Amino acid sequence: MYKEKLREIIFGYRTRSGKIFDICLLLIIVISVIGVMLDSDKYIHQKYANILLTAEWVFTIFFTIEYILRIYCSRSKKKYIFSTMGIIDLLSIIPTYLTIFYAPIGSLIDIRIMRLIRIFRIFQLSKYLRSGHTMQLALRSSRPKITVFILYISLIVIILGTLMYIIEGQQNGFDNIPKSIYWAVVTLTTVGYGDVIPITALGKTIAVFIMMLGYAIIAVPTGIVSAELTAKRQEKESLKNQDEILEKENEIISKENEIISKENEIISKETEILQKLESLEKKIENLKNR
Predict the structure, then answer these.
(1) Per-residue pLDDT averaged across 198-213, rounded?
(2) Of the candidates 35, 32, 10, the residue with the CA atom closest to the CA atom of residue 92
(3) pLDDT of 24-43, one tens digit each?
(4) Does 263 map to a domain?
(5) 59 with 88, same domain?
(6) Residue 289: Cβ within 10 Å count
């Protein structure tokens, strides 16, 4: 009985107690993440390091107890542990314990912000999750096209990077082919850090070509995903239309069945009447013969 009540509070989100627990949990997650962000500031760390460290350990112990209770009261422990949320819950507490061995890894505590995904369930925003699922299906469907696109882009940056290494050379900052390829990627994505720049006229011409190509390339994956989204939407609408047609056909069939059943009733009544008439005719004949 206690276990069922605990499950209702921790995993339930439709009950009052479950919703209050989840909202409090989300607030604690947000506060703990803000604490980690503040601790990364040098001035705040020097002044409030002990307070923030104590708060972080309190939060971590709380999340650890919560994680253990989730395993304890879940119907299928294995299913929860290896679920997406179960893995996120575990990863949100591990970094704090690892800081004992390697302090900088504590910054990974921010991964617990992923636990805020529960906000969709708590406030019944499932329609947003359904939209995300539609996007996921579109990306999955367009994966082969995007893979081919990335392959072509990889070939282009390797060729252009090698050309820039040959044209500009080490004297202009293009020390080796990998560094030249890195420059080609940075230029193609229109980032342009400016750490390496072409000096020769031919090098600048190729750079302009790469920049223009970068703007054109941005539209390609967008178009692929948009086309898949449109296809999924049309498929969904066609399925909806098919369902409506099937419903109407079922209605028509049910009405036809009703008509047939009524006709059968009429025929059976007519048969009864005919049988009665025949029996009456026989009786009349018998009376005449007497």
Answers:
(1) 89
(2) 32
(3) 888 888 888 888 888 878 88
(4) no
(5) yes
(6) 6
Tell me the percentage of the chain whose pLDDT exceeds 70: 86
228 and 150 co-located in one domain = yes
Is 1 a residue whose pLDDT tops 60?
Answer: no
CATH number at residue 156: 1.10.287.70
73 within a domain of the structure (yes/no) = yes
Instruction: Give per-residue pLDDT as tens, 99-115.
Output: 888 777 766 766 777 77
Residue 153: pLDDT above 80? yes
Contacts of 167 (CB under 8 A, 6+ apart): 198, 200, 202, 203, 206
Task: Look at residue 73 and tell me whether its pLDDT is greater than 70.
Answer: yes
Provide the b/e sequence for 171-203 (b: ≥16 CB within 10 Å).
ebebeeeebbbbbbbbbbeeeeeeebbbeeeeb
In the listed set 124, 151, 172, which residue is the last one of a domain according to the structure?
124
Residues 17 and 111 in one domain: yes
pLDDT confidence of residue 64: 92
Residues 115 and 7 occupy one common structural domain: yes
Model confidence band, residue 119 (pLDDT cutoffs 50, 70, 90): low
What total number of domains does the chain contain?
Answer: 2
CA 255 to chain centre: 44
Q: What is the 3-state secondary structure (H, E, C) of 80-118?
A: HHCCHHHHHHHHCCHHHHHCCCCHHHHHHHHHHHHHHHH
What whole-number distance in Å separates Cα of residue 97 and Cα of residue 102?
9
User: Can you give the residue range of the structural domain that contains 15?
Assistant: 2-124
In terms of phi and psi (left: phi > 0; alpha: psi -120 to 50; beta: otherwise), the region of 82 is alpha
Extract the tokens encoding 142. Answer: 């367009």
Q: Is residue 118 domain-shared with residue 205, that is, in the same domain?
A: no
Residue 31 covered by a domain: yes
